[in-house]
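About this split. The held-out portion is used to measure sequence recovery: a designer receives only the structure tokens and must propose an amino acid at every position. Recovery is the fraction of positions where the proposal matches the reference. Here is one held-out target exactly as it appears in the evaluation file.
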């Protein structure tokens, strides 16, 4: 299908479900801050450690060390540094938010809620951590979020369809089978608002999601008792809620009821096996990882990754002959393989095909989508030629996390591979 013929309402709706486009200000502490802003996290960490060792009361250095550890999903290390920052300045909002994220990733929601004490729901830092809704977190008191029930070490969900995005059958609170799409650009499990109402899901407030073109829409917060995936069931699952059934026709199915995002996949050693047409979930154990690696020995391409905000996977990539840059891995970018910020488009002399522009439906309304083709895009050592891209306005994540992100790779880049997300080793494994 030619780029001009694609339906673009899907990617622009999915890409910014829970992320804000406002840039987070970064305090200067040159040269450590400069290295951090460039994505040189290991080098920045060394300098921040030197600063922290000389001055134990340097809140910014401690906070940045906590941030870098959180990016690497080194949760004990992140907790140590963030608590040091808060010991010096108990009111440091950014440190509180990141500490809450540490507990969130451990599925300890009550402690995450406690860490949020004194943080305004309107705090700028929450724009990348919109899952940290305090009322929702507090509702898990006495319970373990994402509690896994079921036998065996692996379960498989065959794709209902693979295009324009993979669809799978799930059950919510014991409901009949419902069709959900898979999207690493989403965070928590998302329910269509009507579907959530039919299930009697209680609303716990909302956050404002920022969508393509700077448009805004409200995303509800809630929780469900259970999510059944193949042979397994997750108990006590947080959810977001927004209208999704309007996407059904574009997916070519009678009804879309939700989306499986990164926070759900995070509970497993998860593989989006596009060639085999299935989602493979393994228990997140060292033994299962070893078994997986032995089964695919010699066929894997390993790409290190970092986890920004509450769910954004980023890895080093490259656009044509541009310098390497961090890229966001968003499997929910449908109808294209890449979406770039304006600087790499200009640096690579990529031509926007404005004569092929289409009108797309974004989360907040109608906007224009312009296609283009990139001669080569790489993520680590994974390379794709003549990758179709789309432009629908400024790239919202360019500097949101305090470091530069040049764009994202999407469905068309990933779909020739089996893509496994190892959130313990912090690697994306392509086969």
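Reference sequence for scoring:
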């Amino acid at each position: 299908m030619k780029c001009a013929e694609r339906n673009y309402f899907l990617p622009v709706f999915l890409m910014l479900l829970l992320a804000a486009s406002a840039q987070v200000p970064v305090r200067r502490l040159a040269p450590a801050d400069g290295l951090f802003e460039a994505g040189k996290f290991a080098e920045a960490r060394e300098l921040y450690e030197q600063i922290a060792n000389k001055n134990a009361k340097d809140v910014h250095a401690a906070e940045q060390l906590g941030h870098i550890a959180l990016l690497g999903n080194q949760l004990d290390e992140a907790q140590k540094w963030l608590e040091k920052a808060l010991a010096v300045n108990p009111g440091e909002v950014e440190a509180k938010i990141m500490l809450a994220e540490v507990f969130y990733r451990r599925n300890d929601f009550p402690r995450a809620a406690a860490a949020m004490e004194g943080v305004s729901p309107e705090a700028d830092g929450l724009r990348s951590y919109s899952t940290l809704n305090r009322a929702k977190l507090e509702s898990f008191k006495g319970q373990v979020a994402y509690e896994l029930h079921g036998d065996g070490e692996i379960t498989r969900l065959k794709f209902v369809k693979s295009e324009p995005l993979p669809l799978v059958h799930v059950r919510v609170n014991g409901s009949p089978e419902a069709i959900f799409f898979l999207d690493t650009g989403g965070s928590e499990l998302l329910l269509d608002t009507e579907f959530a109402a039919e299930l009697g899901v209680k609303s716990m407030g909302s956050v404002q999601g920022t969508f393509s073109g700077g448009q805004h829409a409200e995303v509800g917060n809630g929780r469900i008792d259970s999510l059944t995936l193949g042979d397994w069931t997750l108990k006590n699952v947080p959810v977001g809620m927004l209208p999704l059934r309007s996407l059904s026709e574009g997916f070519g199915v009678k009804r879309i009821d939700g989306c499986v995002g990164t926070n759900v996949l995070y509970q497993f050693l998860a593989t989006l096996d596009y060639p085999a047409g299935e989602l493979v979930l393994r228990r997140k154990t060292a033994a299962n990882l070893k078994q997986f690696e032995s089964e695919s020995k010699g066929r894997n391409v390993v790409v290190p990754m970092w986890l920004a905000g509450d769910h954004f996977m980023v890895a080093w990539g490259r656009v044509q002959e541009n310098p390497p840059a961090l890229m966001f891995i968003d499997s929910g970018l449908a109808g294209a393989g890449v979406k770039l910020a304006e600087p790499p488009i200009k640096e690579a002399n990529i031509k926007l095909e404005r004569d092929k522009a289409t009108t797309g439906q974004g989360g907040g309304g109608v906007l224009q989508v312009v296609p283009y083709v990139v001669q080569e895009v790489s993520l680590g050592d994974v390379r794709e030629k003549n990758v179709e891209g789309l432009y629908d306005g400024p790239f919202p994540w360019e500097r949101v996390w305090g470091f530069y992100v040049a764009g994202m790779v999407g469905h068309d880049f990933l779909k020739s591979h089996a893509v496994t997300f190892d959130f313990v080793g912090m690697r994306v494994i392509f086969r």
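Annotator remark: The CA atoms of residues 148 and 234 lie 5 Å apart.
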